[in-house]
Structure to design on (198 residues):
């Protein structure tokens, strides 16, 4: 009987710990592993426009859009995976692939347009929509993009749904403290975040 009681208590404890992880703050999630968007080397994604320049090989050079499946199509090489790679990593991959066709290829990958990082801002904002982000943004910046709070917005009940990891994580944040008192954490958004203002 004691053993069953101990197993039950242990299971409850593990469940509570799991729930605590899903309700932790965005700052804690950022410090646990990922860096804030805009502070590390940019990784390519769908809809980004890149130029693949091969020196002295104009027929192998091209400007391409990364497709929704994360790939690009290049002359001679066909389809290559680009999503999740930095420009330098993609450059190294294209150089390696071209070695079978060109002696000592000199490749340069240039990011022409950053289009893939997006966030959604919904609920009690004046212009709910999906927005491209080009740099580091706070949740307040994202709400400003969406035209600011409506008169009925509950500034102390803003939910951030982080969709970028393997699991969706939800954070309830109080922006009223930040706006009125200058207290509380500064929350940064990540690509694919959904911000919902109650």
């Amino acid at each position: 009987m004691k053993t069953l009681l101990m197993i039950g208590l242990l299971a409850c404890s593990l469940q509570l710990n799991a729930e605590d992880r899903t309700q932790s703050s965005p700052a804690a999630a950022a410090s646990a592993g990922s860096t804030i968007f805009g502070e590390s080397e940019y990784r390519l994604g769908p809809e980004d426009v890149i130029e693949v320049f091969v020196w002295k090989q104009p027929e192998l050079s091209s400007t391409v859009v990364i497709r929704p499946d994360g790939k690009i199509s290049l002359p001679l090489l066909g389809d290559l995976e680009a999503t999740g790679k930095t420009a330098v990593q993609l450059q190294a991959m294209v150089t390696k692939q071209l070695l079978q066709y060109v002696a000592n290829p000199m490749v340069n990958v240039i990011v022409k347009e950053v289009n893939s990082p997006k966030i959604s801002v919904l609920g009690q904002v004046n212009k709910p929509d999906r927005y491209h982000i080009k740099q580091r943004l706070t949740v307040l910046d994202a709400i400003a993009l969406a035209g600011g709070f409506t008169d009925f917005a509950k500034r102390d009940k803003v939910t951030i749904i982080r969709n970028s990891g393997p699991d969706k994580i939800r954070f309830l944040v109080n922006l009223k403290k930040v706006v009125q008192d200058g207290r509380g954490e500064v929350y940064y958004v990540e690509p694919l975040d959904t911000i919902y203002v109650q």
Summary: The first strand starts at residue 49 and ends at 54. DSSP finds five helices and ten strands in the chain. The longest helix spans residues 2-22.
